[in-house]
Write a structure and sequence with these properties.
The complex is a heterodimer. Helices cover 74% and strands 1% of the residues of chain A. Chain A is mainly alpha-helical. A two-stranded antiparallel ribbon of chain A has the order 1-2. The N terminus of chain A is likely disordered. The longest helix of chain B has 36 residues. In chain B, strand 5, helix 4 and strand 6 form a beta-alpha-beta unit. In chain B, strands 2-3-1-4-5-6 form a six-stranded mixed beta sheet, sandwiched between helices. Chain B is 45% helix and 19% strand.
Chain lengths: 622, 234
């Protein structure tokens, strides 16, 4: 990239200022700038000798493609705001891809024999479990990767002599193969669904982890505002790629910067075997994007987007929303939708227009998607486990998802020491979380949970005289619980020697302590209330049993409908009386229900008084 | 994941195996937290880590409590593979759980491919001696066949709970030092021997088991004629 880089460094700033200029001015400058570009290159070409030929071709091709793809009506719009940048970046992209094509052709000839041999070896080494498809994927991936690597190599070594370069690339090849052998189930270069499945985000978002991490990095404000976001020199991300392929990426250890994230994200997208919009739907998407009615376009796009496989839809949504937020920072990064689309359309395998359209509609097309930063499952290195039950449950879901992924991978034969360690560790965290959750639940059980469950969902309607048993328990339990909670605090506060009454188990403070009576009273009351609670609980159980028994009887009765039918026929009343009788009984029943409730209240009060007296009585004993 | 304190004290990995409801989790929890859980809740898999002092040396023990139920047998292999020592638990009040230890032993040997893997046969619930269904001598006999120690425990009374874990850790430790001493060549030889011994032992074991079962059946006609698990090996 040596000869490209000076330009790149100069350009963003240069064009940034221009981008702010008016459109009319720009269209005029347009031609100048492209000329300038050409000039520069021809100079360089002279310097570089024969290497230039390829470059030039690439450039030409790039321009041709651009002209062909942008439609006349959009032309002005597209070019004016950042014309200069476009030509620049485009050239960069095109030269890269051009070179890629050329190189891969050359190299493939050179190394095809070696490659095949090694591929065979790799195959042999692979486990029987591995499916044919995976072999293919692997090979495909490997080849792609090689191309990529060569690309990079070439870029950095452009000035090197040819023979030297070929040596190096061959070395690269072998190292590539070694790497490939070590990989069981790669993430890069496999179909999106497979990549998603293999490296899940454990919070339920269907994105491959690598994409999620990259977008997370890029969504940071400083990334979004970086004027060189997506204008990156090719830079070696094979380290990160390997980490992701081996599931060894650790955000704490290897932090990605903006440009690494860009490159890695683009690399991932480029290595996808199928366009994000899928081969089947791509043409329909392109057609729809030509629709000039905004609302119609949106509904049509909506329909198409819903046809995409789920993981494709998610990836598209995340990317478009992210690009949209990138463009929203155009004040800082000088990117508008057009220029960004021009820069990235190739990697996303869609036209510039389509990409602009998708970005424009992103928020409406993907209302369900929010770019949430991924919080990976906790590890043993994480300082603290969550405390709130909901958080624990959320973390548990993540850990469970992680655990099942580990199991799946291990069952596929993706086994190494690290995996096993991880398996135990995840299992340990799950165990801890479960224990914590259980203790939380136990704490809540008596107070909140029971009150809620018994008040919000009272037992089935009264069948026999359940009287007051239902409304009471929650209150009683709540008070009992409050007392129970209050106890320890009063227990612990007095330091003078306290005695435990042997008969009752009460804590007795010395007679001098003013809190003695209070504590004693509370303890006795607690006792009484507990016994009442138990009494009511047993009653609930008997009532429930009764309900169950009655239900069974009912079911049995229902089995012989004829008998009941006959019985009811016998006492059929006259037509007129019928309604009157129903009305009468309804009223009567309502009245009885009311009376019963009043009695229940009374009974409760009586019982309360009873308990109070009982407490006083027992207090006398001490 | 990457910041494990493995560099510190030695880490011994213990796996609890055995049928459902024999008290694997109870033993583990008693060892870990000195608590006895009355209510039964089937385990899927749980893992614990504890720092202990083993013969004056601070070590860490990782305990993996596996599921007794067959439902989770699919993921068992993944765990067995990474275990360094096994506590094979049955309940002395449940003959079926005792018979099942045979299968667990076989599965472990198959996965580890090593007959001398640290292994303890543990008869739990010895506080319920009055409800004993598995005679002591039968347990000892089986342990002898496998040349492994046999210990009776009670998770409820904590009897021998520490003992089984510490005994197993000692075995794992001695096994590790032995392994690190051995050169690669010798290790291979030993491995071969082990395997041979293993197959022979399993074979003998099988014959003896069959004959003992026959005797038992003659004695106890009531016992339902269920397929003996060891026959499945053939």
């Amino acid at each position: 990239m040596e000869f490209d880089s000076p330009e790149e460094k100069e350009f963003p700033g240069l064009y940034a200022s221009e981008a702010a200029d008016t459109k009319s001015k720009k269209s005029k400058e347009e031609s100048d700038f492209s000329e300038g570009d050409y000039d520069k290159h021809s100079k360089k070409d002279l310097l570089l000798g024969r290497r230039k030929d390829k470059k030039d071709k690439g450039k030409d091709r790039g321009y041709a493609a651009l002209d062909g793809e942008s439609s006349p009506e959009e032309e002005l719009d597209t070019k004016s705001p950042s014309k200069s940048k476009k030509s620049k970046t485009f050239k960069f992209v095109s030269s890269k891809s051009k070179e890629k094509r050329e190189k891969s052709r050359d190299k493939e000839k050179e190394t095809k024999g070696v490659e095949e041999e090694q591929a065979l070896k790799t195959k042999e080494k692979e486990k029987d479990k591995e499916k044919e498809r995976q072999h293919d994927e692997k090979e495909q991936k490997k080849k792609e990767k090689e191309r990529k690597e060569k690309d990079k190599k070439d870029k950095t070594d452009k000035k090197d002599k040819k023979d030297k370069k070929s040596k190096q690339t061959q070395q690269e090849d072998t190292s590539e193969h070694d790497e490939a052998v070590a990989l069981g189930c790669p993430i890069f270069g496999v179909p999106l669904s497979l990549a998603t499945e293999r490296s899940r985000c454990h919070d339920g978002v269907d994105l491959p982890l690598v994409v999620r991490d990259c977008i997370d990095v890029l969504q940071q404000e400083q990334s979004l505002r970086c004027p060189t976001i997506y204008v990156v020199e090719p830079h070696n991300v094979s380290h990160f790629k390997r980490l992701y392929n081996n599931r060894e990426y650790d955000a704490d250890m290897d932090e990605m910067d903006t440009h690494t994230a860009c490159t890695l994200l683009i690399l991932f997208l480029r290595e996808l075997p199928e366009p994000i919009l899928t081969t089947d739907l791509l043409t329909s998407f392109e057609e729809v994007s030509r629709n000039r009615s905004v609302t119609k376009r949106e509904t049509e796009l909506q329909q198409l987007v819903e046809q995409l496989p789920k993981c494709n839809r998610t990836l598209l949504g995340w990317l478009m929303l992210h690009f949209d937020s990138t463009v929203q920072q155009c004040r800082y990064n000088k990117f508008n939708a057009q220029s960004l689309a021009l820069l990235l359309r190739q990697h996303l395998q869609m036209s510039q227009r389509l990409m602009v359209v998708l970005m424009y509609h992103a928020t409406h097309l993907f209302p369900d998607i929010k770019l949430i930063k991924y919080v990976p499952p906790l590890t043993s290195a994480s300082p603290e486990l969550p405390d709130k039950p909901e958080e624990i449950q959320m973390e548990l879901r993540k850990q469970d998802s992680l655990l099942s992924q580990i199991h799946n991978e291990m069952n596929e034969g993706f086994i190494n020491k690290k995996r096993e360690e991880q398996l135990w560790e995840v299992q340990r965290i799950i165990t801890q979380l479960k224990r914590k959750l259980r203790s939380c639940e136990k704490k809540q059980e008596k107070s909140v949970d029971e009150v809620e469950s018994s008040t919000s969902a009272p037992p089935p309607p009264p069948q026999s005289d359940t009287t007051d048993s239902k409304p009471n328990p929650p209150q009683i339990e709540a008070t009992a619980q409050q007392l129970g909670e209050a106890m320890p605090t009063t227990d612990s506060s007095p330091s003078p020697p306290s005695v435990i009454d042997k008969e009752t188990g009460y804590l007795l403070l010395p007679k001098t302590n003013p809190q003695r009576d209070e504590l004693l009273r509370l303890q006795i009351e607690f006792d009484e209330l507990m016994s009442w609670q138990n009494e009511l609980k047993t009653r609930i159980i008997t009532e429930r049993n009764e309900i169950f028994r009655l239900k069974q009887v009912y079911e049995q009765e229902a089995l012989k409908p004829q008998a009941t039918a006959i019985a009811s026929q016998e006492q059929l009343p006259e037509e007129g009386d019928y309604e009157r009788i129903i009305e009468h009984y309804t009223r009567e029943n309502a009245l009885l229900e009311h009376k019963k409730q009043m009695l229940g209240m009374e009974l409760k009060e009586e019982r309360r008084a009873c308990i109070a007296l009982q407490v006083e009585l027992r207090l006398q004993q001490f | 994941m990457s910041k494990k304190p493995t560099a510190g004290p030695a880490l011994h990995k213990v796996i609890m195996v055995g049928s459902g409801g024999v008290g694997k989790s109870a033993l583990t929890l008693q060892f870990m937290y000195d608590e006895f859980v009355e209510d039964y809740e089937p385990t899927k898999a749980d893992s614990y880590r504890k720092k202990v002092v083993l013969d004056g040396e601070e070590v860490q023990i990782d305990i993996l409590d596996t599921a007794g139920q067959e439902d989770y047998a699919a993921i068992r292999d993944n765990y067995f593979r990474s275990g360094e020592g096994f506590l094979c638990v049955f309940s002395i009040t449940d003959d079926e759980s005792f018979q099942a230890t045979q299968e667990f032993r076989e599965q472990i040997l198959r996965v580890k491919n090593d007959e001398s893997i640290p292994f303890l046969l543990v008869g739990n619930k010895c506080d319920l001696n009055d409800k004993r269904k598995v005679p002591l001598n039968e347990c000892q006999q089986r342990a002898q066949l496998w040349s492994v120690p046999y210990v009776e425990t009670s998770a409820k009374t904590r009897e021998n709970v520490d003992k089984v874990f510490f005994d197993l850790m000692r075995e794992i430790r001695s096994r590790k030092t032995e392994d690190s001493k051995a050169t690669s060549g010798r290790a291979k030889d030993r491995c071969k021997k082990r395997r041979l011994k293993c197959t022979l032992l399993v074979f003998f074991d099988l014959i003896r088991d069959i004959s003992s079962r026959k005797k038992q059946r003659q004695m106890d006609v009531k016992e339902p004629a269920k397929p003996s698990p060891c026959c499945q090996l053939l």
